[in-house]
User: Which sequence fits this backbone?
């Protein structure tokens, strides 16, 4: 009995990490990404303007906006299920870095806490990888 308890306790960090990774991906996709992915190009252009204003290449607004919508929806689902976890976390992390920077310039720290939390989660997932309970581990 005691050996079974020790074995189950050893799996707790992996189970809790799976929960963190899965909830991060699902919440990001549902509340932030899916509506952006299904939107028209004018919304992608508005999203992309956040980055192109810094770079100065206005012609990249729509592609960059689509990349942001893609990372917040499909990338978030990849994170949730643990498939191509590190590349998806990298893309979503870049998107959250841009969102955090935009929010910091616009309203200070008060308006940027959510994007900052998602940025920190992406960095953690990027560093830790897919974990034990993931499609990456099953397939690769």
Assistant:
């Amino acid at each position: 009995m005691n050996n079974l308890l020790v074995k189950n306790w050893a799996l707790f960090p992996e189970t809790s990490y799976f929960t963190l990774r899965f909830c991060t991906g699902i919440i990001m996709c549902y509340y932030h990404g899916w509506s952006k992915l299904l939107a028209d190009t004018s919304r992608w252009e508005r999203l992309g303007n956040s980055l192109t204003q810094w770079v100065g290449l206005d012609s990249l607004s729509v592609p960059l906006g689509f990349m942001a919508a893609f990372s917040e929806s499909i990338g978030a689902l990849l994170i949730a299920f643990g498939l191509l976890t590190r590349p998806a976390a990298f893309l979503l992390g870049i998107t959250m870095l841009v969102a955090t920077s935009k929010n910091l310039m616009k309203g200070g720290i008060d308006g940027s806490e959510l994007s900052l939390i998602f940025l920190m989660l992406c960095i953690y997932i990027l560093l830790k990888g897919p974990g034990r309970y993931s499609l990456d581990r099953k397939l690769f």
Remarks:
- The longest helix spans residues 2-37.
- Residues 87 and 123 are 11 Å apart (CA to CA).
